[in-house]
Structure formats: structure tokens, C-alpha cells
Amino acid sequence: MVSSEDDQPDALNYCLEGTKRNLVCWGHEYLRCLAGQIGNQYDDRIKKNESVDDILGLVDQIVPEFINHNEEGEAVDLMMEVERLNKLADFCNNNNYERVCTYLLACSDYAADTEELTQTLRTVYGVYRKFDKFPDALRVAQKMNDMALINELMSDCKDKLTLKQMAFMLGRQRNPYTTTDDEITRIVSNEKLSEHYKSLARELNVVEPKHPDQIFKTHLEDKRYKFGAAGIDSAKKNLAITYVNAFVNAGFGSDLLIRNTEASEDWVFKTKEDG
């Protein structure tokens, strides 16, 4: 019966003719077979305007079993096929909600239309709200560009540190938000972004600028094959050094290449011929 053809819902028909109880005791492969046949049968009944209540009753038994046995993907697929994503949060717990949301977010990239995309993202938002994961819920609300949900999250969050983290997220995406808290307002408007960045650099002890040679570890290179002591001055090499210097020292306000006044030759003047 499990090995029957996909277009022949024998397992589902026999199940519906029976007691429709204790499906779990038949084994995991049996449940997977039922899940596949339920999706096809649901579509057929919807097209014929027939009742699907008996099928949805089976879904309520199958989904918890999938989720409790690390088959979140199978559970989400089944709920999407029977158009019951809004009920998915009822089956989530602290051990599996992250995997469920990660799979749903991945599925949202392949949504067939805007309505399906919105429903998927709202389901993820609801799951995150259920477990008070405000930053994650805010990330989903920003993806939907729903200012009502964003304002709701900022109002409901009572933890000061979490609220600041969310304010930084709003500032990063340029989402407008108005509040009477002056500190949150400054964070959202990115007024102190540079100061916060340098403060973090001091805590990480990375304030001192680095020369590109420290990144390339040129002191470990074999010097024997270079022509002369200075080696070949390549335009591509100079370009690479400039990019590395920019990215490594970005945000610190100083570096050892462009702003180095002690260098014998100005770097910009030296490389200006190469564009």
C-alpha cells in the first residue's frame, strides 16, 4: 500500500474508511505516504467543492508527529498544501520553532504570488511573537515592510537592551519610527553610529589601524624570486592593496596607507597613473 502509485490514494482511502485514530502506531513511512496523498486529494476536493474536514482531521495527527521527530520540512509542506499555515504556530515549541521559521523563510523566496509570500511571512512573524523573539520578528516585519507590525513590536518590547538592538536594526534599514525616548530616537536616526562603532572597536581592541602587508603576511613570502629588493610594482597589486586597506580600516577614521604622513611617498600620487 505504501509502495502504490502516487495517483492512487489507496492508503488514504483505507485510512478514511477506518477509525482514523492512532495513525502514529503505523510508522513514519506510512505517515509520509498519507501526507503525499492528502495533498493531492485536498486539491481534487477543492476543485469539486467537496468537504475536506476528514482530511484536515488526519493532518492534525500527522503534523505533530513530523515536528516532534525533526521532520519540520515535511510538516510545513503538508500545512502549505492544505492551506493551514495559520495553524502552524500551535504545533511549535521551544525546541523546534527556529527550524520551522528557517524553513518557512527559505520557502518564502519561492512563493508563487504576493498573497502566498505575505501569508508565509506572517506565519513566521506569528511564531516569533509567540516565543517573544522580538528582533527576529522585527526582521520579518521589515521584510514585509509593514510599519504597523514594526510599531507594534517596538511598543510591546519592554527589555531596554533588546529595544536598542531593534532600534539599530531600524536605523540600518532606514525605517522611520517616532518615540518619546530620546536615546532610541538618536539610535534610529543613526546620530551616534560612528561613536558606537568606535566604542565597539575599543572593546575589541582593534582600534589601531592595520597595514595591508599585515593582512597579506608579506613577511612570510619567498623573496628569492623577486627582481630587486622592491619587487615588481604591479597596478593590480596596488589596486588590491588599496581595497584591502579600505575594508580592513573602514570606520576607524585612520589607516597606515592613505593618511600616513610619515610615508616617504604619497600613495595616491604614486598610483594615480593607474587610475
Description:
It is a single chain. This protein starts with 9 loop residues before the first helix and ends with a helix. The radius of gyration is 29 Å and the shape is elongated. The protein is an all-alpha fold and 275 residues long. It has three domains: 128 residues, no CATH class; 60 residues; 63 residues, no CATH class.
Task: Quickly describe the structure.
The protein has 275 residues and is mostly helical. It folds into 3 domains: 1-128, no CATH class; 132-191; 212-274, no CATH class. Helix content is 58%, strand content 0%.
Strand-residue proportion: under 5%
- State the end-to-end distance: 71 Å
Count of alpha and pi helical runs: 14
Low-confidence stretches: 227-231
SSE topology string: HHHHHHHHHHHHHH
| Alpha-beta content class | mainly alpha
Overall outline? elongated
What percent of the residues sit in helical stretches (DSSP H or I)? Answer: 55-70%
User: Roughly how many Å is the radius of gyration?
Assistant: 29 Å
What's the count of strands? 0
Largest sheet: none
Mean of residue pLDDT values? 81
Number of domains: 3
